Amino acid sequence: MSGDHIHPEPTSFLSKYVFSHDHKVIAKQFMWFGLVWLGIGGIMAMMIRWQLAHPGDPIPAIGMFLFPRTDGVLDPATYNTLFTMHGTIMIFLGLTPLMIGAFGNWCIPLMIGARDMIFPLLNMLSFWTVFLGGCVGLYSLFVPLGANEAGWTSYATLSTTIGAQGHGETLWAVAVFLIGASSIMGGINYMTTIIRLRAPGMTWGKLPLTVWALFLTSVLNVLFIPVIGSAMILLFLDRAVGTSFFTPASLMQGGGGGDPILYQHLFWIFGHPEVYILILPAWGFVCDLLSFFARKPAFGYRTSVGAMVAVTVLSAVVYGHHMFTTGLSPMLGESFMLLTMIISVPAEILFFNWLHTLWKGNLRLEVPMLWAIGVIFVFGLGGLTGIYLATIGTDIFLHDTYFVVGHFHLTMAASALFGTFGALTFWFPKMFGRRMNQTLGKIHFWGTIVPLTFVFCLMFAMGYSGMPRRYFDHTSAEWLADLQHMNVMATHAALLLGAFQLVFVYNFIKSRWWGPAAETNPWEVGTLDWTMPTPVPYYNFKEIPTVHTGPHEFSHPALGDDRDWIPMTEKLPG
Amino acid sequence: MHRLKTLLSTRLKGCAALLALLAMSGVAHAQEAAETANRWGLGEPASDYGYRFTDLFWFITLLVGISFVLVLILIAIPVIRDRARPGHKASFDHGSSLHDKQVTTVISVITFIVLDAWVLVIAMQDLREAYWAIPEADQEGVYQVEVLAQQWSWNFRTPGIDGEFGTADDILSNSELVVPVGRPVSFQMTSKDVIHALFLPEMRMKKDVNPGDINTSWFQATRAGDFTILCAELCGYAHYQMHGKLTVLEEDTFNEWEREASKLALTAFDPEDTESQWAWDWEQ
Amino acid sequence: MRAAALNLPREDDKTKVNMTLGMIFFVGSWAMAFGSIFLSFLVLRQRVGVWPPEGIALPSMPMATVATVVLLASSVLLHVAVKRGEREAGGVQSLWLGGIALAVGFAALQSWLWLDLMAAGRFHTSGLYESLFYGLTWIHAVHVVIGLLSLVWASVGLKTGRYGSHRLSTVSNIAIFWHFVDVVWIVLFLGFFVF
């Protein structure tokens, strides 16, 4: 467990591939799990966009199969379920297992010079817990009164038995609880591993920024997932046994009442750190990828770490900006506005460091680098639009409109997704020993970033024009009907975006099994994971390495002219 | 230069093709739906504080737009100028010198002041002067409206000509609200079931309506006409249908309307109908 | 199974630190969970003008006090057991079993508290006070059950020799979990019966 000794190799099929304790196998389990759910969530998005552009038209191809009772047409309740589960799936079952489960597991032990995670059994349990959570979520789609329809935010009292009958919502709460438990297990494991199992010489100042980011993500996971855990428990109790934590007195017979707004506080105390949980790993990847492919140190390593730490610390005190129209006291509202603006400062610092890393580099515009630069683009755009929402004067109008949808899809979905694609295309050769097709990779990149930017920028126009979100049909209200042209354009772009993801699916699967063999270190990068042979042996390091050099010493003058990189185990000449 | 040409030609060709495709399809469909006007943006606001939203929005857009163009330039220059090629080396710089840290600090402070602090000050003014400046109950000319939201329609109640809530001449309506122009309209709102939100887009007003609690809001109309009421908080499967009509009348027309509506309410009043007696004491 | 049959290597210092660190993070996480539940309790409580609400049957304060004392005693016994194990002194198993016995005693007293209140006609659906009382103590009870099962598991391990002075981390961590359960109860006791 302490990582010093090499344990015997697992032999049975179950111990090698199913209940493996090997972080590399668990990483791949999380990866396939996350990719499948990302696909399911993506298809849901396509259906949502279809309905918005063509209200009342049956969904092409899959409609008759999925919704036979309505001849392939979505009804309003199903539509609400779709956007609810789209959000839930993308966040909890797609991005989290992929970025944190898969890459946390793959990168951490290999990059710090450890043989495995410090608690391998806990690691395995973490995967199977999220798997179970996914099963519960999937099952909830098939219960008689349908799955959760109350949005991924599931505000009370829409989510209590007042607004939602049936088992769907209850099962959703259970699923979120299980998925959260999995994240806590992972968080404890990652934090302890990074603190305790770094190889000799691997100081905190030499950690790849990916590892720093995953460490801070784990801190947030361990501290704030329990908050939504408690919200889910209270919601479950309200629904299943009839307590009244979130039901106000006016809607109950006798006794004092609960408070629906309490739910919102609990949810967003978790919810805001959650968006940082989702973006920090991507930030980590980007910091490292930019350095790796610009052949230059990550500019301002310590300031970047400081910025990520600052964001982590501040993430809990800005949550009220999701509640500006709820009726918070003016003093609270203004405090949240100020704090939200303050938290943008460390993010800006990180952003400037990225730009400065590119500046006067020697840029290798390989596919992972394209994705990293893509993150700079979408996160810059999305982040700047946050200003409109942090400012209460504009948020009052823009709250619950498509402006918000555009903002969080750019900052959270696109940025995290692009970071994930960057990580996938970058670590693919080490994970699978093969190369992905670079041309297809570039087609996928451009075919994603252009339509995506179009869709979500259009949403800013939609929001500004007053189009509310979570509406089944915008043509029902006359004043909104003349915005319908925007819906149509966005849907076309979204369908195009969806279609281009098939390029990735094809590339990924084909390369995984039939791709050309990759060299041991195709990207010429010095971090410890790339010093490993491919495939990486189950024990990782035969001898725990000693680290002498930082992870970003690219183009160091002492390296001379024939190479611009140095493995972390080597000493810099001179 | 040749490098630039090749770069621009293939990459931009691809993007241009994609964008053209998108635009063409949009235009095609827009022409198809030519009966409805294709609106981009908002019309003139119909409330006295309505200009504040668009003013602040476009001010922020100016700042954000300049910033983003700067960012694009700072991405484009290295991507074009610093691409890897034989003989080219990266400039080795950890960016950890004292000078770098000082520059970072200065840039951060300037960015905060320009993008955030300035906007913060304007917003706080807007909030205190307008959005949160809910008129007092005894203010001259205030028109009070109690709102009871339900799944899925809006119930409105005004005190009628006796000026008191909870009396027989209270004017009750569903999905339609009539208010006078040029007088502050003050809302107290609650919900019967789940959280809703009263959204009057042309007035630029939005406030959540919570069960078990009373929220307040207000606006003052600047012109007569018919306007939209929308719900802006997911409240169930018919959330999208929870819209209504806000009618603003000139003073004389309104006074006449109120007299008639009050009289009608008096005759229609049924003391047995407890469901319609949901008024509450207007709190200070 | 005889103690000698399980010949497990001595735990080294590194492993002890690792396990303790992991446990600290785990307890930190759980503290956040109970913290937010307790925060909810405080928020909801201050919405009610009079606390405890007048005119309704309340859970028995004397019984709750006895339960608290029993629970504290169980923690003390477990703590002493762990300390003796670290010093390789004897009596670890009997102290541990004593702790379990008191823990079971607490569970019994807790159940009595609920049954007593239910007999007075107050159920979890009766109103906010009851929602809070039953809800929070049930959440606590789940952890009491998990704790009890872990305590039993540890005692089996102590008997078979799987755990002992040579490998104490798991046992000591389980005791820490029980102490945490204890602290949460004290906070609940203060919130419902004292303040």
Give a structural overview.
The complex is a heterotrimer of chains A (574), B (284) and C (195). Chain A has one domain: Cytochrome c oxidase-like, subunit I domain (Cytochrome C Oxidase, Chain A). Chain A starts with 12 loop residues before the first helix and ends in a 60-residue tail after the last helix. Chain A is mostly helical and 574 residues long. Helix content of chain A is 63%, strand content 0%. Chain A is globular and about 75 Å long. In chain B, 40% of the residues lie in helices and 21% in strands. Chain B has helices spanning 2-32, 50-81, 98-131, 251-268; strands at residues 143-150, 153-158, 171-174, 176-180, 184-191, 196-200, 205-209, 215-220, 225-231, 244-249. The longest helix of chain B is centred in the middle third of the chain and has 34 residues, at 98-131. Chain B is elongated, with a radius of gyration of 28 Å. The mean pLDDT of chain B is 89. Chain C has 195 residues and is mainly alpha-helical. Chain C has a single domain (11-194), classed as Up-down Bundle (Four Helix Bundle (Hemerythrin (Met), subunit A)). Chain C is built from 5 helices and no strands. The radius of gyration of chain C is 19 Å and the shape is elongated. Chains in contact: A-B, A-C. The interface between A and C is large, with 44 and 36 residues.
Show the helix and strand layout.
The complex is a heterotrimer of chains A (574), B (284) and C (195).
Chain A: H1 13-18, H2 23-53, H3 63-66, H4 76-112, H5 120-140, H6 168-196, H7 209-240, H8 260-294, H9 301-314, H10 330-358, H11 367-390, H12 392-398, H13 402-432, H14 438-464, H15 478-481, H16 484-514
Chain B: H1 2-32, H2 50-81, H3 98-131, E1 143-150, E2 153-158, E3 171-174, E4 176-180, E5 184-191, E6 196-200, E7 205-209, E8 215-220, E9 225-231, E10 244-249, H4 251-268
Parallel strand pairs in B: 1-5, 4-10
Antiparallel strand pairs in B: 1-2, 2-3, 5-8, 6-7, 6-9, 9-10
Chain C: H1 13-47, H2 61-87, H3 92-119, H4 128-160, H5 169-194
